[in-house]
Amino acid sequence: MPLEALTTHLLPTTRGQAELSGGVKLELGSAPPTVVSKMAGNSMNMPCIGAIVMATMMCLSPKK
Known about the structure:
- With 64 residues, this protein is mostly helical.
- It contains 4 helices and no strands.
């Protein structure tokens, strides 16, 4: 979903998210879902990549 893709970029798309983050709600107005999807891109951002790297690092065993 387009709004979920924006949320993965840590952009507050709801009032609750804005209050928790201390930011302002992203005003999308009447942007159609296709435009919102293009704005979000492929949703691969630092939190997503960080989680992948952390999971990979946890699977590595240290050399003895």
